[in-house]
Amino acid sequence: MCNVISSSAAETLALGAKIAPLLKKGDVVVLSGDLGAGKTLFVSGLLNFFDMKDEVSSPTFTIVNEYNVRSDLKLFHFDVYRLDSPDEFLAIGGDEFFYNGICLIEWGEKIDELLPKDCLRIKIEKDAENNEKRKISFYSSSNKFDDLIKEVTNNGESSSD
Questions:
Q1: What pTM, to 2 d.p., does this model score?
Q2: Which domains does the chain have, with CATH numbers?
């Protein structure tokens, strides 16, 4: 696991933009953290890289938003917070998206049993004393994302756990 400290919303946006070019079709990224931690903000940063500034909205009620980030690449932004069970994700065909683009899944721990083994997990935690500060942890259960994690967190402000 590697951690990055973000001191502001602008830094969280920049981190999302930094990871964007490293993701490929078929990558699944699970974003976890409390309400208001910055999951959707991180996704905004990713979309900023693809010149889609101000286009992100949380898909809390629609479950998934689809973005054509390039002519050959789609990004699927899920928010599964309101799902009561993994079966609901299957009922909407959610698992069919996994290999058709880049999938970013907020609250993905709710459908953990359905996720590919080699997904990238990003946990965003608020700082108890500084409302702007976040600890952003990157980890994966396989080595698929090792190089990505090293590149994203190699900025002098990261630490390995």
A1: 0.89
A2: 2-160 (3.40.50.300)
